[in-house]
Amino acid sequence: MKILDWYILKRYLFTFLMMLLLFIPIGITVDLAEKVGKILENKAPFGEVSLYYLDFTVYFANLLLPIFLFLSVIWFTSKLANNTEIVAFLSSGVSFSRFLRPYIIGATIIAILALVLGMFLAPIASQGFNEFKFTYLKKNKKIQKTRDVYQQINDNDYIYVSSFSPAQKYGQNFTYEHFEGNELKYKIFADNIRFIEEDSSYRLTSYVKRTFENGKEIVEKERRKNMIFPFELEDLTPVEYAAETKSYFELLEFIEAEKRRGSPNIGRYEVVLLKKWSIPVSIFILTIIGVAVSSIKRRGGMGINLAFGITIAMIYVFFDKIFGVMAEQSNFPPIVAVWLPNLLFGILAVYLLKNAKR
Hints:
By secondary structure, this protein is α+β, with helices and mostly antiparallel strands. The protein has 8 helices and 6 strands; from the N terminus they run ααααββββββαααα. The protein is elongated, with a radius of gyration of 27 Å.
């Protein structure tokens, strides 16, 4: 690697690191100023608060990593352009493609970091971040009930509940069905179901069990009955951030299990899975766009390049969020929702790069 490559690569990585070190403390300060009242009110231990902000750092660094990188590329490339260093490089016989090579090397290093972060480290941080938020920051908020939960627990068992309150661990109109092959063996009804934490059982009110044997129906009724079922409380209260807390291979297994259960949240889970690959790719795309728009010395200086870069970043985030929500809440294909912004901005990167070479 030549002196030019080392020079640009060091500036690339150093500016990116400085961008993280600048914005993450600002984010922590703003978040702490907003939530310090609830933290003190709910008496969150200092150790848990410290772990929360460590998780907060990893969680948002993973979420905003491409944007931080994009702004840092525009920042230091604009400085190179304003100092006429890029003109000197290109005038010495270096082609624009050759000038771009250290940027691609730097993008590869950051993309590998993003891949490891998204697949293995960010899920751990997301678990701690969300658990602290729901334990201390949303403790006194009214939690909405889940409604019309229908789940396939395994190959033979299905459950249904018309509504379930996570706060009270209490549901209404519970049904449990057990099949063997295509034959219904028994069915359990209850007006109410409540989770008992002491022994991890469920208390059923107005319990009715219908067993089907040899063409006969046996009916069993009790006013109240405690039972242990082969499903978890989370099956009645689907957690929205469940996919975010799982590593890549755990998430693959989780999605397959949820598909067998007929979960309505498959779109949300697949968006999380696909973004683990799309974010590293977006790093290359945004790096090329950043170099293309900031490698030209402009009359307005770095301010014009930064304004243009921030506008592109906002549009990218807008498309990413809009398509993500569409995939989560409709039948819009998750693979299209995740990769379409990269495709559109990839085309923009090629166009801007061709103009920059001229």
